[in-house]
Amino acid sequence: MKVTALPPGSKIGIIGGGQLGRMSAVAASRLGYHVHILSAEADPPAQETAQRVTIGAYDDEAVLRNFAQSVDVITFEFENISAAGLDLLSSLCPVHPAGPVLAISQDRILEKTFLSDSDIPVAPWISVPNAASLEDAATTLGFPFLLKTARFGYDGKGQFRIADQAAFDALNRDLPFPLIAEGFVDFERELSVMVARNASGATMCFAVTENQHRDGILDVSLAPARIPVLLAEQAEALAHRIAVTLDLVGILGVEMFVSAKGELLVNEIAPRPHNSGHWTMDACLIDQFEMHIRAVVNLPLPDPYRHSDAVMKNLIGQDGMDVCSAVLSGSGLALHLYGKTACREGRKMGHVNALFPLGALPGSFGIAARFDEALGVGRDPQPDD
Question: For residue 370, is pLDDT > 90?
């Protein structure tokens, strides 16, 4: 059955009013669509870019019914929303990506099960439903290994590294079960791929991105990743296969490790625009947000055409805000602020993109440290820089 595209003037509902909703609304507006944001928090950043905003709980049936009746299609900007609420919305209005995709991405056990069952390479793992299962995890995986909460973990939160037997013996057994235990991966670098797919089955990948984290939060992304062409093609093929297997409609961020042996291991999936795709806003003709909107309304998905190499730097907390004047005074830097009123430690306040000619992205010479140095931010260089 042929699926038609929603015409300009149609209304797109976005669940969540943070920066991803804000930037998605801008992209939708460029294409002639109207956006209605549903946010559980007052004064969300997306209210400045959307035509309409509703403040209400994601599990309030009356709120959800009114929201669904006001729009032609619904999408979301983050995973931590009510699955039951999304089921209700799905009964009233098309939702992309679909509820089952969200359910998989919300739960690390379901996510790893899906990836393993789909023959997608992942790190060794085992589910830990209760304290009694901790011994099985230690025996199966050996030391060191990671414990992660099954739900509601992001930016390094909800993770515990168990280095050795002594750390395991000292572990507080009063943990937020269920958990997932993962074998420690000796990885050479971290990658991500943004892949979009529409209801007609058209699929498009952005360039493979290399990511560097700091204190569990994404610090710097480099596009394209500094990896061999063949490995980049393999990473895109994995992302494409995951999108097709999920029957994805929308955009998906696929996070991966490159092991010390040069093998790709998928870590997590996120069915929404992703922090590591922000470089596309200045280095591509069509960025990740427009590609997401195009997929959701079933517009064509042309090649996004990356016209530049790029480095994206997150602006975190007050330290990040303090460099804004330097960014605005510099050349070749594009500043994106999220309109957040409260500046807290560890909070993403914005990002900055630096562009380079195609093929000119600096090699392995401490790019993250040099970026900070150019902005006047102190930093201890990391081994992978």
Answer: no
